[in-house]
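Hey, weird one. I pasted the Elongation of fatty acids protein sequence into the form twice and got a warning about non-standard characters only the second time. First submission, copied straight from the form history:
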Amino acid sequence: MDSPFGRVMQGETIPIMTVAIYLLAVFYMNRRNRGRSHKPWISTTGGWAGTMIVAYNSALSAFSAWIFLSSFRVLQRRWPSSNDPDYASRAVDILCNVDGGHSNGFQPSRDHPGRSNSIAYYTWLFYLSKYVELVDHVITLTKGKEVSFAHVFHHSGAILALWVAVRCAEVGRLGVASLAGMMANTAFHTVIYSYYAITSLRVRVPRVMKRTLIALQIAQFILTLVVTTGSFLTKYMAPMPAGLDYPPPGQFAFAAAEEVGRFHLPGQNGSGTGLMIPVPCLQTTTEAFTSFLGAVYVMALLLVI
């Protein structure tokens, strides 16, 4: 975001320092809890602490649901008509260029004004929520328990992976890998934080529910990995702008070309060439590098959970 707070959070200092302090704190507190035979520091089953835990989990569940539904509505508004002769290409173009292919970082696209129409805006909020989610482990450690390596890797890696996605969106390119990861994760978090809130109220939940949640967590990782890997292999047909021998990077997308009015689809009136050319889903090295890091992170998660 174009504000002092936004510029600080988009810089590398905050995520790196946060992860470093988090790792040291978890390592220290794990040792302390082992030395205390895992006795709780305070009671979390009632009183003010229990109330705060229920409120925290409920708030994160509601926030995750809001991010998921808001992102879905953005895609729904941009989705092409089923009568569009180039429906498949336009649909893939929207997914490969989720903010229209020409958004100015976190500034909303001109054809979709307002923050509520920017996937990058919701990605930014999603990134900030990963700092809040570190409270999960404050609660765990307060109960006298230890934080596992898998959870430490998951939470610290999420901050760094999303920071990379935010920096990619800053230069106007937010791809389908980031979108898939955000929507799968917010959908899962809507369910898991609801589960945490219910169990914090000491409501008995069937044991099969816990196994189902584990399966859903694995499913979200697999879905994200499949979509991320697929983005490297995906090409789609897009119109070539008129007056150019070959379109430069960033001018492939339907949305970008439509905005400058330099092409027309075959059979339409206009000044374009009408020539359809194959376009890669990942058009820049920044996108490819970001997607590669995301794939490595998710594969590592699947190995450690």
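That's the output from the first submission. The warning seems to come from a hidden character in my clipboard, not from the data itself. The first strand starts at residue 235 and ends at 239.
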